[in-house]
Design brief:
The protein has about 170 residues and is of the alpha/beta class. About 35% of the residues lie in helices and about 20% in strands. It is built from 6 helices and 7 strands, in the order ββαααβββαβαβα. The protein has a 4-stranded parallel β-sheet with strand order 3-2-6-7. A 3-stranded antiparallel β-sheet has the order 1-4-5, covered by helices on one side. Helix 5 links the parallel strand 6 and strand 7.
Length: about 170
């Protein structure tokens, strides 16, 4: 049986002054924590979706992923700074401490804040929105657990949001 573990997020957000869209996850998966970067599970479709909707080659290394995001004015981070969690199960999250978004919001001119999945959307609205007052758009999760959404459907949903703020 998988036990609860209290974990603190250890990697920084990716953004710069030109970032126009911020995509927020909940908290890094076990695989992401192992490699020290976002969306590290090989079956997660996040990088495939973003590459497809931006017409870019698929980034592979952490450095390529960071460069890809910045070149496309996309930032990524997670809502949660620390929590208790069973493995990678977002539904098991308790003892939530959220990240401080004041710096990223003051250093960018964000057009859109988007949630990668329902749990990120719910956590942002519960903990961050009351403090910041900035709306978030709910996008479908790119997790392999979200099998109801094909790669094509994910690309369409993400493409509409990304196009709306990058063009």
């Amino acid at each position: 049986m998988i036990q609860y573990t209290n974990i603190t997020h250890t990697f920084e957000p990716v953004y710069d002054a030109n970032t126009k869209i911020l995509i927020l996850g909940t908290f890094p998966s076990v695989k992401s924590r192992e490699i020290g970067f976002y969306y590290g599970h090989p079956q997660n479709r996040f990088w495939k979706v973003l590459a497809a909707v931006t017409g870019s080659p698929l980034p592979v290394t952490v450095e390529e992923k960071k460069q890809f995001l910045l070149e496309n004015n996309i930032g990524i981070w997670d809502v949660i700074k620390s929590c208790s969690i069973k493995g990678s199960d977002d539904n098991s999250i308790t003892d939530v401490e959220v990240n401080d978004f004041s710096k990223i919001f003051s250093e960018t001119k964000l057009s859109v804040i988007a949630a990668n999945g329902t749990k990120a959307y719910e956590l942002y609205n519960r903990y961050v929105f009351p403090v910041i007052g900035r709306e978030i758009v709910k996008l479908p999760s790119t997790s392999p657990a979200n099998a109801a959404w094909s790669l094509e459907r994910l690309c369409k949903a993400y493409g509409e949001v990304i196009a709306s703020c990058l063009n």
